[in-house]
Amino acid sequence: DTQVQTAWHRWTGVDRQTFQRFFPSSPGSPLPQSQFFPPAKDVMLPTGSFNNRVAFITGGGTGLGRAMTTTLSQLGAQCVIASRKLDVLQQTADEISSQTGNKVHAVQCDVRDPQAVSVCVDQMETLTGLPDVIINNAAGNFVCPSERLSPNGWKSITDIVLNGTAFITLELGKRLIKSQRGASFLAITTIYAESGSGFVVPSASAKAGVEALYKSLAAEWGRYGHRFNIIQPGPIRTKGAFSRLDPTGAFEKAMISRIPTGRLGTPEEIANLAAYMSSDFATWMSGAVIRFDGGEYVSMAGEFNELRRVTPDQWKMMEAMIRNTKGS
Ligand SMILES: CCC/C=C/C=C/C(=O)SCCNC(=O)CCNC(=O)[C@H](O)C(C)(C)COP(=O)(O)OP(=O)(O)OC[C@H]1O[C@@H](n2cnc3c(N)ncnc32)[C@H](O)[C@@H]1OP(=O)(O)O
Ligand SMILES: NC(=O)C1=CN([C@@H]2O[C@H](COP(=O)(O)OP(=O)(O)OC[C@H]3O[C@@H](n4cnc5c(N)ncnc54)[C@H](OP(=O)(O)O)[C@@H]3O)[C@@H](O)[C@H]2O)C=CC1
């Protein structure tokens, strides 16, 4: 708590008292019930599940993309990771490769640019051939009241998330179809793709578009051997996400309080799910949307869920009042 306030002070010059006035809660820690839901760290699938497979992961240099790349590489896949920052990608690729003994290739690509996407896929074809597994994970996001959003702010996010996913999917899909090769496509969206959410309107709109794209192609391209699935993660602490969605750390506690399992998710948990959905154990899974959020979505949605706060004594009183009611 103090560390966040000190960092905030350093960045902004705002003193501690003012910080506390604007952001009265402190960064969250797990709730007691989380002891019933410990996150598994181990890789779930059998060793070698992705031997002789090529996996292409956008945004694979950081956060959840890095975790998914690590797991697929541990399971035998040759991975290609792509994003804008080649130095970050290269460092991740080297670290994962030396940990798993399997090749990880770094390819620079801004997914907003269809020409760059085409060049990236050319490079991948030379390095590894076309992929068996495609994970559209790259994204951009920031919290911002919509009345402060510029056209370029809107365009920046929707270009990365919706157009980027479409450019990658169409480029690879067409080449795979031409080569008569099947593949598993996975998109990482978010729980608010379904509900919409204020303050992240471009992201919510673009992620909803990605879901429509993937559900549509699941129907259309099954005949070419392609599966399309979606994971909707709830909050998982990564530098990329939390620095843009909770820059002060003040909202983490509120997030955790909404999650019935009492904790944030972990990158390893998403990586295991993504690996399963991309694997030969899931060849009958297509068009699926898997919400993976510790129960946060339903917890926010249910009209009466706030009654969790009612104490046993208060329940006694309320029940008596209800039972006492006669007639309509
Ligand atoms: C908690 C559970 C649910 C969680 C869901 C999480 C979903 C996620 O997607 S988290 C992923 C987060 N990771 C990233 O965002 C990584 C990549 N992000 C970026 O590179 C940048 O943040 C950005 C998306 C802005 C793109 O960078 P780029 O250099 O291409 O753009 P800029 O030139 O900096 O900005 C483009 C226009 O956007 C305006 N803008 C940027 N930041 C903000 C902000 N915080 N508030 C308002 N507007 C912003 C910027 O001013 C530019 O517009 P203009 O000035 O009109 O030219
Ligand atoms: N962490 C969370 O709580 C949640 C995350 N998600 C989703 O999970 C995914 C991963 O997010 P997370 O790991 O947290 O965040 P990160 O910021 O770490 O990951 C985003 C990645 O996207 C890449 N990227 C951004 N813009 C572009 C671009 N124009 N072209 C190519 N690559 C780009 C970034 O690399 P570079 O800068 O090198 O381009 C970065 O590696 C995203 O789809 C996000 O929406 C969903 C729900 C919750």
Automatic annotation (TrEMBL):
<dbReference type="InterPro" id="IPR036291">
    <property type="entry name" value="NAD(P)-bd_dom_sf"/>
</dbReference>
<keyword id="KW-0560">Oxidoreductase</keyword>
<dbReference type="GO" id="GO:0005739">
    <property type="term" value="C:mitochondrion"/>
</dbReference>
<comment type="similarity">
    <text>Belongs to the short-chain dehydrogenases/reductases (SDR) family. 2,4-dienoyl-CoA reductase subfamily.</text>
</comment>
<protein>
    <recommendedName>
        <fullName>2,4-dienoyl-CoA reductase [(3E)-enoyl-CoA-producing], mitochondrial</fullName>
        <ecNumber>1.3.1.124</ecNumber>
    </recommendedName>
</protein>
<dbReference type="Pfam" id="PF13561">
    <property type="entry name" value="adh_short_C2"/>
</dbReference>
<keyword id="KW-0521">NADP</keyword>
<comment type="function">
    <text>Auxiliary enzyme of beta-oxidation. It participates in the metabolism of unsaturated fatty enoyl-CoA esters having double bonds in both even- and odd-numbered positions in mitochondria. Catalyzes the NADP-dependent reduction of 2,4-dienoyl-CoA to yield trans-3-enoyl-CoA.</text>
</comment>
<dbReference type="GO" id="GO:0008670">
    <property type="term" value="F:2,4-dienoyl-CoA reductase (NADPH) activity"/>
</dbReference>
<dbReference type="GO" id="GO:0006635">
    <property type="term" value="P:fatty acid beta-oxidation"/>
</dbReference>
<dbReference type="InterPro" id="IPR002347">
    <property type="entry name" value="SDR_fam"/>
</dbReference>
